[in-house]
Amino acid sequence: MSDTPTSVDQRTVGAVIVLAAGGGTRMKSSRSKLLHEVAGHSMLSYAVNAATALEPEHLVVVVGHLREQVMGHLHDIAPHCRTEVQEEQKGTGHAVQCGMANLGELHGEVVVTYGDVPMLSGDTLAQLVNAHRANSDAITVLTAQVPDPTGYGRIVRDDRGLVSRIVEHRDADDATRAITEINSGIYVFDTDVLIDGLSRIKAENDQAELYLTDVLGIASSDGRRVGAYEIDDLWQTEGVNDRVQLSRMNKEMNRRICEQWMRAGVTILDPEHTWIHSSVDLGTDVTILPGTSLEGATSVGDGATIGPDTTLVDVEVGADATIMRTQASLAVIGEGATVGPFAYVRPGTVLGAKGKIGTFVETKNTKIGEGAKVPHLAYAGDAIIDAGANIGAGTIFANYDGDNKWHTHVGRNAFVGSNSVLVAPVDIGDGGYVAAGSTVTQDVAPGTLAVARGRQKNSDGWVAKRKPGSKADRAASEAGDYHPNDEVAADQAKQAGSNQEAQQ
Ligand code: UD1
Ligand code: CA
Which Pfam families does the UniProt entry name for this protein (predicted)? Predict the structure, then answer.
């Protein structure tokens, strides 16, 4: 989806250390802050992806607070990461010391990033490394000019424009606080400079913490070159500390994702009311209508129309399909197929090309063949419905006997009449018919009609006898021999006659 990525030159990066030990108390959550999601994926996953893009020798995540959760999550999404534990959060400098603890000899620089800055891209990290190398810096820090720098560390530059030190907001005097260039907390260090600096930092500040930022001041006073790489895209330096910021981050990420898809040839009628996870894939000439949420591993083929008011989670949609007012997950929708409005498509549903899952239909673990239709008010579960079959309105596949689930098969071009119950396990053969209102408990051979319902019996004059003088009785006697259906039939016959004349 993205443009050609920036890559770092031949030399490898020694390590990326992702700081992720902090408390995240302002989230007020039993879940680690790093596992909260932006565009459908954990904040930590973005940090790890950006780091991975540098192809470092080592990728280390420093964990602390709620570390079992964080380590479990990393095991799932990025088993190539190693973790180091920072037992007590004694500051960013201490966190990097922990991250470096077991790395041995490194053959390149050390990059430091944060686990809670989801918008930072691998591209930006690569540009930072390239700038570091091009300028022969000992340390390069990623910085930004912000309108309100409150709370951030300020970048103090010397008269050559190099960084002489970073001063935390709480340790800064008024003149320093007036500086609007801030420290993003993302850096590239020459390894020896980092190791030396970390051995010299002291917890002599307002928070009595070991500040990583002090390593920059130490290197600068040693006469080393400390550069700043300034970026315009402030979002890439933004961390998330509470759920208000999380919401803002989600909104911005979604805005960017929608914009990227629109530029790639997708029509999104109302991007503010369309949510697309970063993992979703869309074809060209896809149309997305308002109130649509495309999640997880969803992919949509060329020319398909999704929405309005549709949520697809891990759904593969074929080209030119139409899905309207639908909730679907773990399903495959074939080319040119139609779904909805008001369908509930559950895991294991596979709808063939040009097939139909219609209005107020629920499906689960059901394969519906090419051109087959389940158009109205039905439940189809644990079934195979072959190509061209038609499932009448109100049909229920009774798949559950209270203990076990059973399968149903409906053959090719079979026809199941309205309001039938197919009691599984049962097999309707190819071209078989089921009369409307049947409860089918036995297999139906190919080409056979099954009628499984009470035969109709009419009791003449029943109302006159049992409810004399009632409204129904009066209506019946007024009707006499009049049957509205006879008139309809006569009209139809007349119509057919005149059509024939017109054709001759
Ligand atoms: C830090 C920087 C500040 C910068 C800001 C950008 C220092 C001293 N200050 O400040 O200059 O403008 O980031 O957001 O570095 N962490 C640990 N272990 C610790 C402490 C922190 O893993 O002991 C992690 C946190 O989880 C977080 C990151 O490091 O991801 C930053 O920590 P935080 O306490 O938010 O630093 P700030 O005070 O914001
Ligand atoms: Ca912070």
Answer: Hexapep, NTP_transferase
Give the number of the atom of ligand 1 that is nearest the alpha carbon of residue 62: 22
The separation between CA 426 and the C-alpha centre of its own chain, rounded to angstroms, equals 37
Our answer to whether residue 483 is catalytic in this structure is no
The Cα 475–Cα 465 span in angstroms is 14
- Tell me, in angstroms, the distance from the centre of ligand 2 to residue 241's CA: 7
User: How far is residue 444 from each of residues 125, 221, 420, measured CA to CA in Å?
Assistant: 65, 90, 14
Contact 8, 54 (CB under 8 A): yes
133 Cα to the center of ligand 1, angstroms: 25
Give the rounded percent of residues in the chain with a pLDDT score beyond 70.
97
H/E stretch holding 125: helix 122-134
Whether the pTM exceeds 0.90: the reply is yes
* CB within 8 Å of 33: residues ≥ 6 apart: 22, 24, 27, 43, 116, 240, 241
Largest CA distance in the chain: 113
**For residues 206-223, average pLDDT:** 97
Is 32 touching ligand 1 by the criterion CB < 6 Å?
A: no
Among the listed residues 109, 141, 112, 130, the one whose alpha carbon sits nearest the alpha carbon of residue 51: 112
Q: CA 29, 35, 41: angle at the middle one, nearest 5?
A: 135
Closest CA to 188 of 106, 84, 268, 86: 106
Residues 6+ apart with CB under 8 A from 248: none
